[in-house]
């Protein structure tokens, strides 16, 4: 084999050339080489704006980079191709001008083979999406508020640029978590510079459920749009509620997960208000509101927990968004339906038994015994509460909050079934009474 840099003949299996120091790769190790320098060795992921590869550096043999590739092969419209290219170059120029501990460092960008490439710092670890998929939600309050401190830091830095930089696509898939617990924002493909005086954005971008309503043609995005997305993401991390299930209609966090303090829930309600004027004006205000809970750890570096999710936790992907094990056991309506149905069924079963005993012991030609009379009286209350349990259970099943509970659907179904069986037992009682009356 020969060195790809200086063409020196080398023994098989040589890792680095002794003449020039270049890393020597084999066809099975190196996918391709860019600019005669960056050796793409592994595909790390696929995003909306292109693929990301792990790359080694022939000039700096101990350094690894993340190389983002944007190809426009699948884009047929010339206008869309131009927009995609402009967005990629914007990301490169934007990141190159920024410097913050929670942002990846950009070192190079270029075109080769009709494709655009961006070379940036390789961030070890995983996205918050991946992290939560295998550990489950909700996450502990101190951990989430520690992340909130870091995200407020970096968003405050972006919003403090002149002009301000609006991220616009904050979600778990766009946040990397390093083994040391540090967060880094990735994928600036739809970030934009805020232009005062513009009534609305020229294009609608973002992820449904996480992005603010104004990103869909209702107004211009500004710092409050990132406040909204941060509030949605924190809500999901603390509750496990899927924001895509009910876009722009998040239930209060402390209703989904009672462990969330009321002050944190109130802060998230304000942060995710559909009207920008009703939200916090800045991430600094949101941070201050969260700090009042006494649990916000400024720029905390939380180690990754080693505990597995609780027994019975489940994880599913719905429309590209994770749905996790719920924190709340049931909803109020579902619990009411459960107990109302169960009690009604028990009372009606006892009434049916008493009427049955009364019918069996009735003297031929005589009146019904006291057993049957007491049974009829006992059946009056469940005659009304049984159908009511069915109605309440059906209503509970139609509420979106029931998706974020562990046993809410089960409780509601039990309430519906119990109410219907109660009515069936009522019919049996009527038949027994009718049979007794005809025999007398």
Structure description:
The protein is of the alpha+beta class and 440 residues long. The protein folds into three domains: 32-121, Phosphorylase Kinase, domain 1; 126-323, Transferase(Phosphotransferase) domain 1 (Transferase(Phosphotransferase), domain 1), CATH 1.10.510.10; 332-439, no CATH class. It is 40% helix and 14% strand. The chain is built from ten helices and 13 strands. The protein has helices spanning 78-96, 128-135, 141-159, 223-239, 253-256, 262-271, 283-291, 332-360, 370-398, 408-439, and strands at 32-34, 38-47, 50-57, 64-70, 106-112, 115-121, 126-127, 165-166, 175-177, 183-185, 192-193, 316-318, 321-323. The strands form four sheets. Strands 1-2-3-4-6-5 form a six-stranded antiparallel β-sheet, covered by helices on one side. Strands 7-9-10 form a three-stranded antiparallel β-sheet. A two-stranded antiparallel ribbon has the order 8-11. Helix 4 (223-239) runs antiparallel to helix 6 and helix 8 (332-360) packs antiparallel against helix 9. The protein is elongated. Mean pLDDT is 81; it is low at 193-204 and 295-327.
């Amino acid at each position: 084999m020969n060195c790809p840099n200086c063409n020196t003949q080398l023994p098989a299996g040589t890792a680095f050339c002794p003449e020039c120091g270049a890393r020597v790769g084999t066809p099975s190790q190196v996918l391709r080489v860019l600019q005669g320098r960056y050796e793409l060795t592994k595909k790390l992921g696929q995003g909306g704006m292109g693929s990301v590869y792990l790359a080694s550096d022939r000039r700096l043999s101990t350094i690894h980079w993340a190389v983002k590739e944007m190809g426009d092969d699948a884009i047929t419209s010339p206008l869309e191709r131009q927009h995609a290219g402009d967005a990629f170059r914007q990301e490169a120029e934007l990141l190159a001008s920024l410097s913050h501990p929670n942002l990846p460092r950009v070192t190079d960008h270029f075109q080769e083979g009709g494709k655009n490439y961006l070379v940036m710092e390789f961030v070890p670890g995983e996205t918050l999406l991946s992290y939560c998929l295998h550990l489950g939600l909700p996450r502990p309050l101190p951990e989430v508020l520690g992340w909130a401190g870091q995200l407020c830091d970096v968003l405050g830095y972006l919003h403090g640029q002149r002009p301000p930089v609006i991220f616009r696509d904050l979600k778990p898939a766009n946040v990397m978590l390093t083994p040391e617990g540090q967060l880094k924002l990735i994928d600036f493909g739809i970030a934009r510079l805020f232009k005062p005086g513009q009534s609305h954005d020229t294009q609608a971008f973002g992820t449904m459920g996480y992005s603010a309503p104004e990103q869909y043609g209702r107004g211009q995005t500004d710092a409050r749009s990132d406040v909204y997305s941060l509030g949605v993401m924190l809500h999901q991390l603390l509750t496990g509620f899927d924001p895509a299930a009910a876009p722009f209609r998040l239930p209060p966090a402390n209703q989904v997960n009672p462990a969330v303090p009321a002050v944190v829930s109130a802060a998230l309600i304000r942060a995710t208000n559909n009207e920008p004027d009703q939200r916090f004006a800045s991430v600094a205000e949101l941070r201050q509101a969260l700090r009042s809970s006494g649990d916000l750890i400024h720029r905390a570096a939380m180690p990754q927990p080693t505990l597995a999710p609780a027994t019975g936790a489940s994880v599913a992907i719905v429309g590209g968004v994770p749905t996790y094990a719920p924190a709340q056991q049931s909803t109020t309506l579902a619990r009411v339906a459960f107990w109302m149905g169960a009690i009604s069924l028990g009372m009606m079963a006892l009434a049916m038994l008493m009427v049955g005993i009364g019918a069996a012991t009735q003297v031929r030609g005589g009146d019904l015994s006291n057993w049957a009379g007491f049974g009829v009286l006992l059946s009056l209350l469940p005659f009304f509460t049984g159908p009511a349990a069915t109605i309440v259970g059906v209503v509970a099943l139609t509420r979106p909050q029931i998706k974020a509970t562990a046993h809410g659907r089960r409780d509601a179904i039990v309430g519906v079934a119990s109410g219907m069986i109660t009515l069936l037992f009522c019919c049996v009682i009527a038949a027994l009474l009718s049979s007794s009356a005809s025999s007398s």
